[in-house]
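Subject: (S)-ureidoglycine aminohydrolase

B.,
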Amino acid sequence: MGYPKDLLSSRSIIKPGQYALIAPEGLVNNVIPGFENCRISILGSPKLGASFVDYVVTMHEGGKNSKGYCGEEDVQCFVYVLSGKVKAKADDQEFILEESGYLYCPPGVTMYLENMESGDSRLFLYKQKHNPLEGQKPWVVSGHANEIEYMDYDDMHNVHLKDLLPLDLAFDMNFHILSFDPAASHPFVETHYQGHGAYLLSGEGMYNLDNEWIPVKKDDYIFMAPYVHQAAYAVGREPLTYVYSKDCNRDASL
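Prediction pasted inline below.
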């Protein structure tokens, strides 16, 4: 990395328990046992106020996690391929995932990842404790987001949504892709029970976080705590698109 070439500054904004914008320029490497030849940065986590943990992972040539990831009886996990090509396994089920590919492992199922490129592959990785529902059990899900058609979001033709996981009561969370055409926006400023972790896949925009309008762009990460004001509009010449998690299908606990 070497010596700095300019004054030290950062676009990142960290407000634990409320929201965070984490720009890629400030990320550092976190050593995660079991991952080999990988550079990993922990993004959202309980220390920030999240109920989940998000990571961005760069798997170098030969990178893998041969000992597996998650697999605990009460923890679920999800991986989304930002770029490159990986072999992903859910216990003994094997999948080849290229850009936009994803794999969900339910509680008790271990995820294995191996880079198939001669260069780097980049991943967005997630884990969270599962909130079970009596008589319901989630299952392994894999696919490629690029093969899923967009649907209009809230009856707007310039905002588009993809659901990556089934809309089934067995699942207490989902991953979505939300995309805004240039100049498009949310229909209103949202305030709701669910928190989010979002990784920006493309574009530029302005994001309302707790009623503060903040510029965002590709490769930024946003954490939004429950009930924090949130909304976006796209600027620039390409869609503002992000992949994000959202809890669902469960009542609030007392």
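The longest strand covers residues 52-64.

T.
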